[in-house]
Specification:
48% of the residues lie in helices and 14% in strands. It has helices at 2-19, 36-44, 90-95, 128-146, 290-293, 300-335, 339-342, 362-387, 398-409, 411-424, 430-458, 467-492, 519-526, 528-546, 554-581, 588-596, 598-612, 619-657, 678-725, and strands at 53-58, 61-63, 66-70, 100-107, 112-122, 150-151, 153-155, 158-159, 162-167, 170-174, 177-178, 180-183, 189-190, 204-207, 210-219, 225-235, 257-258, 267-279, 729-733, 744-748. This is Transmembrane 9 superfamily member.
């Protein structure tokens, strides 16, 4: 057993080292670009055509301070004369992506220093309706600037990224850039206003109306080229006249600033851009996403968390090996005894006639297990495809599409597992079981999702799913998933699971429970260790969801998922054994809830993340955050609970199936009902001590090593930002220490620049 566990751990480690790197398949052919002269030459020679026009697309605008994204058209920006929206898959629609054409179009190889796109004029005079519409547009723009809404532009299916230095020699590339920045009444520059000393006037909004775009391309031998990256720099620039676009330089210009009082004045905002093409022969098209993925937060902290998780597995595996060794001796001794001595036994052996007694609420448990098995297989198949590079960020919406399609197609698994377990419990209402498996959990999830979608409709958000897409989802549910559940149930009802021992007709009396043998302490204790193994990875997942960061660490996620399965299984088996030793045979529901309780810790962590890491504005964002969180908690509860149940089921079946002869006892009351609690208390104390020691070790090691490392990076970054942008600093003297000397702490008077400092760098872990 030890050798098998060691081999499993080594394989997991080797797998992780190979799949944590950024790796993906583009899954679409590259597009060749060339100058107009080369394009005409190729047309004359009837050669493969290349494109000279570069079309840029715009996506939804989102913010880290709200969960409500908006279409590009909701803001009064320049619009494309030819509106064109590429087809979107199911995942893109569910995620709220709304890609459409933009007025920014370029000719390959043609540089432009300053080209006007359009001018938006707002007149204070006119009719009341026009004045109200003007104020509404400007107020909506100023609110978007204050909430730090971000543009998302796309060229050749590649994000136009905003790259900036966060550490000395280290750059971070964001797939979005802000529409502007804001300086409050105290002169504190918020968000992107720290990038330029021009943005310093109090109570002013700065609109980023000029964009410097740099397009890098890989030259080919036939005078064609492949685009390998596109980067930009946003600026706020006030043009002299609405019809003139003259860009002087990055140091000598007047920014385009607005105030609330400007809503009653005539106002013109001119949008412009500059574009330059630079050859990049050392960067290849197949690896053009690497510069974005490689600029993501470093992976040292993830390896540290995985090391801690492996320590947990070693703890639990050691306890499990001791337990199995003790069980082997008990089974050998029990099989050699005669019937008279067997009747004097106590502990887990005397409940062999009741351990397979069907639980109360067997139908509900079977439904949970069927849906949980469906979620488990969907999760691991999705992770497998992601590790193979088939669900890369270049394939937009592929991750969500894959999850939904796999979940629907795996309805067969849910029906099979649920019906077979229900048949094993002796249930007769198989029709109710099948229909409940198909509609209970999916119905709850869809109900919550529909309520959240109503809120998004009310807010006119781009994330609101259209009615036609909802109909398509319902069609997949009713006409694909439900028939597959019925087919799976047909095969599952054919033959129930056969237990190794029969069940007594009279239920055995369970001795009086002590504090530790009650359900709640064991359930609370059983979820601590699995959550301790995954909470660092949860931080990155939540950052990817709510902070709109690119998440592509599927190798780490796969390894953490395997660790989660192992810890859930081992913790549930150990606690199940403790309760069987206490002659408590009600293990069915307890094994499910014990490992499923990890989801409660996940929910508590989401509350902590909301309170400490996010700054949500408005009731709608709060409701949406907790609504989506509840959906994730339900799915995670079923995932962990099902994993723990089947591990415990295999354990119980194995140990009771090892008894060679059935010690049938005519009357349960003839046995001494006083349990021998000395061994139970010893094992429970051992488990509690190991759990406590691990938690202390994990907390101290993580917060001393990881937190200090991250805070050192944040301090270095803050120093670099102050040097580059000349941000004022307050110096605060502290009392002298024992060894003398004056400790000086530098504190930025301006608020931290949130987009420029990723969460992992600012120490918000």
């Amino acid at each position: 057993m030890t050798r098998k566990i060691s081999i499993l751990l080594v394989c997991c480690f080797i797998l992780a080292t190979h799949v944590v790197e950024a790796f993906y398949f583009p899954l679409h052919a590259p597009v060749s670009f060339c100058t107009p002269a080369v394009q005409k030459y190729h047309e004359a020679e009837h050669r493969s055509l290349c494109k000279s026009d570069i079309n840029m697309f715009v996506n939804r605008l989102d913010s880290v301070e709200t969960v409500i994204p908006y279409d590009y058209d909701r803001y009064d920006f320049c619009q494309s004369q030819q509106e064109y929206s590429p087809s979107e898959n199911l995942g893109q629609v569910v995620f709220g992506e709304r890609i459409t054409s933009s007025p920014y179009n370029f000719t390959f190889g043609k540089n432009n220093t300053c080209k006007k796109v359009c001018t938006k004029s707002y007149k204070a005079g006119g009719e009341e309706a026009e004045k109200a519409e003007m104020k509404h547009k400007l107020n909506f723009l100023l609110r978007g600037i204050q909430l730090n809404y971000q543009h998302h532009w796309i060229i050749d299916n590649m994000p136009v990224s905003w790259c900036y230095e966060v550490l000395i020699g280290s750059r971070y590339c964001s797939p979005g850039f802000p529409i502007g920045c804001y300086v409050d009444k105290d002169g504190n520059r918020k968000d992107a206003c720290v990038i330029d000393a021009h943005y310093e006037r109090a109570q002013h909004y700065y609109v980023f109306n000029h964009i410097n775009i740099t397009i890098f391309y890989q030259p080919l031998i036939d005078d064609t080229n492949l685009l390998v990256s596109a980067k930009l720099e946003p600026l706020s620039m006030k043009h002299k006249t609405p019809d003139e676009c003259v860009f002087l330089n990055s140091l000598n210009y007047e920014p385009m600033s607005l105030q609330k009082s400007d809503l009653n004045k005539d106002l013109d905002i001119t949008y412009s851009y500059s574009v330059h093409f630079i050859p990049s022969p050392n960067v290849y098209w197949a690896s053009r996403w690497d510069y974005i993925l490689d600029s993501m937060p470093h992976t040292n902290i993830q390896w540290f968390s995985i090391l801690n998780s492996l320590v947990v597995i070693l703890f639990l595996s050691g306890m499990l090996l001791i337990l199995l060794r003790k069980l082997y001796k008990d089974i050998s001794r029990y099989n050699q005894q005669d019937l008279e001595k067997a009747q004097e036994e106590s502990g887990w052996r005397v409940v062999h006639g009741d351990v397979f007694r069907p639980p109360k609420g067997g139908m509900l448990l079977s439904i949970f297990l069927g849906t949980g098995a469906q979620i488990i297989i969907t999760s691991f198949l999705t992770l497998g495809l992601a590790c193979l590079g088939l669900l890369s960020p270049a394939n937009r919406g592929s991750l969500m599409t894959c999850v939904m399609v796999l979940y629907v197609l795996l309805g067969f698994i849910a029906g099979y597992v649920s019906s077979r377990i229900y048949k094993t419990f002796g249930g007769e209402r198989w029709k109710s079981n099948v229909l409940s498996t198909s509609f209970l959990i999916p119905g709850i999830i869809f109900g919550i999702f529909f309520i959240l979608n109503l809120i998004l409709w009310y807010e006119h958000s781009s994330a609101a799913i259209p009615f036609s897409t909802l109909v398509a989802i319902l069609a997949l549910w009713f006409f694909v998933s439900t028939p597959l559940v019925l087919i799976g149930a047909y095969f599952g009802l054919k033959r129930p699971i056969e237990f190794p021992l029969p069940t007594n007709e009279i239920p055995r009396h369970i001795p009086k429970r002590s504090c530790c043998t009650r359900p709640l302490p064991g359930i609370i204790m059983g979820g601590i260790l699995p959550f301790g193994c995954i909470f660092v990875q949860l931080f990155f997942i939540l950052n990817g969801i709510w902070s709109h960061q690119v998440y592509y660490m599927f190798g780490f996620l796969s390894l953490v998922a395997i660790i989660l399965v192992i810890t859930c299984s081992e913790a549930t088996i150990i606690l199940c054994y403790f309760h069987l030793r206490a002659e408590n045979y009600h293990w069915w529901w307890r094994s499910f809830v014990t490992s499923g309780f990890t989801a409660i810790y996940f929910f508590i962590y989401c509350i902590h993340y909301f309170a400490s890491k996010l700054t949500m504005h408005g009731w709608a964002s709060t409701v949406l955050y907790f609504g989506y969180t509840i959906i994730m908690v339900i799915l995670f509860f079923l995932f962990c609970g099902t994993m723990g149940f089947f591990a415990c089921f295999l354990f119980v079946t194995k140990i009771y199936g090892s008894l060679n002869q059935i010690k049938s006892i005519s009357s349960p009351q003839e046995i001494d009902m006083t349990p021998t609690m000395a061994g139970f208390w010893s094992s429970m104390l051992e488990y509690f001590i190991l759990t406590t020691l691990f938690l202390l070790y994990h907390a101290i090691a993580f917060f001393v090593y990881a937190k200090d490392t991250l805070m050192a990076l944040a301090s270095e970054t803050a120093s670099k930002v102050r040097q580059d942008y000349d941000i004022p600093v307050k110096m605060k003297k502290r009392k002298r220490g024992k060894k003398g000397g004056v400790h000086v702490r530098a504190r930025l008077r301006k608020r931290k620049f949130r987009p420029a400092l990723p969460s992992i760098v600012t120490g918000n872990c």
